[in-house]
Amino acid sequence: MITTAKRLDTVEEYYFSSKLREVRQLMSEGKSIINMGIGSPDLSPSKAVIEAVASAIQDENGHGYQSYQGLPELRKGMADFYQNQFGVELNPNNEILPLMGSKEGIMHISMAFLNEGDHVLIPNPGYPTYTSVTNLVQAVPVYYDLKEENGWEPDFEALEKLELEKVKIMWLGYPHMPTGARGSLALFEKLVAFAKKHNILLINDNPYSFVLNDNPMSLLQVEGAKDVALELNSLSKTFNMAGWRVGMVLGNPEIIDAVLKVKSNMDSGMFYGIQKGAVAALNCDKYWFEDQNKIYRRRRELTEKLAEKLGCKVYKEGVGLFVWAKLPEGIESSEKFIDEILYEKHIFITPGTIFGSNGEGYIRFSLCVKEEKVQEAIDRF
């Protein structure tokens, strides 16, 4: 019998991968499931993006292997986007690396910098992939608490009390997933200072800046951040291109080059047509964001009504693609709570526990659901 690698003992199948099988089974039984769990935009990219891809498909030179670093015009588009939106100047030749989605960047960065036994600071609650990738490369997850009473921001006194000598990487993501906490430039400045003090590679995962957020920020706006920091970003949420798999990692040329060493051994470049579509997306004007947010604002208002109908207290300060809500007093298990709703009302909501122990007592609603479906979910109660 062929045995699996020991590293698989450190991870479980991704929650949504297994849970959605359960949801599909209910659907096959004729249940009308309203899926409010997944942050996969149901809206379409702009017309300009579709036209750019359609045109690129006709290019006879567009079907071969592409550069590991992406098209020069894609890197320039990413640099211009950061300059226009954040006031951050980046050299498109060596400070930007396009990715097939920012999720793969988490693995590439971890493989480039982590040795067995290195420690990694991971937010609790936070994106589960930080933990699974850390385990897969045989590093050690060390969780730092984010709590509502602190605005879902780190407690720096508590951070300083951790054993930091072995810490190589610190993950963060503002606007925060799953809570929607905005963060601030003051917070970023403190994080950069902390990373410099302890010689830690700081990485901000930043795909939600433009969803219901009137003050988009980048970690790279902080003076000196490039010395110790990278930023991941994605076109998935901002431009409704989740399935296209277009992301980027940005920062210091030496650090980017280390990531490229891994990436160039993992793929053979991004499809030409997708890159051309991404260039078009990055050139969208401010009205794109305004129109998207009009839709998400209406959805959020309805989703908050649904949460309150369940007796939950909504985290009103949140931005991004989700609504984070605290369960009523006396509810002991988020997972049991959402399962009862799934099987009784046929609505799928994400339990906060999949994001870490500090997610117990909370649930998360996705805004990737049409208004009429959210209203139907309300009506089911």
Gist?
Residues 32-381 form the Aminotransferase class I/classII large domain. Helices cover 39% and strands 15% of the residues.
List its traits.
12 helices, 15% strand, PyrdxlP-dep_Trfase, EC 2.6.1.-, 13 strands, aminotransferase, NHTrfase_class1_PyrdxlP-BS, alpha/beta, transaminase activity, four-stranded antiparallel sheet, 381 residues
Verbal overview:
This protein has 381 residues and is of the alpha/beta class. It has 12 helices and 13 strands. The protein has helices at residues 15-28, 47-57, 72-86, 102-113, 128-136, 156-160, 185-198, 253-263, 272-282, 286-309, 334-345, 371-379; strands spanning 34-35, 96-99, 119-124, 140-145, 167-172, 201-205, 229-234, 247-251, 313-314, 322-326, 347-348, 350-351, 362-366. It has a 7-stranded mixed beta sheet, with helices on both faces. α4 (102-113) crosses α8. The N and C termini lie far apart (51 Å).
Distance from first to last alpha carbon: 51 Å
- Give unreliable regions as ranges: none
Radius of gyration: 21 Å
What does the main sheet amount to? 7 strands, mixed
Order of H and E elements:
HEHHEHEHEHEHEEEHHHEEHEEEH
Helical proportion, percent range: 25-40%
List the helices and strands and how they pair.
Layout (H helix, E strand, L loop, with lengths): L14 H14 L5 E2 L11 H11 L14 H15 L9 E4 L2 H12 L5 E6 L3 H9 L3 E6 L10 H5 L6 E6 L12 H14 L2 E5 L23 E6 L12 E5 L1 H11 L8 H11 L3 H24 L3 E2 L7 E5 L7 H12 L1 E2 L1 E2 L10 E5 L4 H9 L2
Parallel strand pairs: 1-11, 3-4, 3-5, 5-6, 6-7
Antiparallel strand pairs: 2-8, 7-8, 9-10, 10-13, 12-13
Helix pairs in contact: 2-9, 3-9, 4-5, 4-8, 10-12
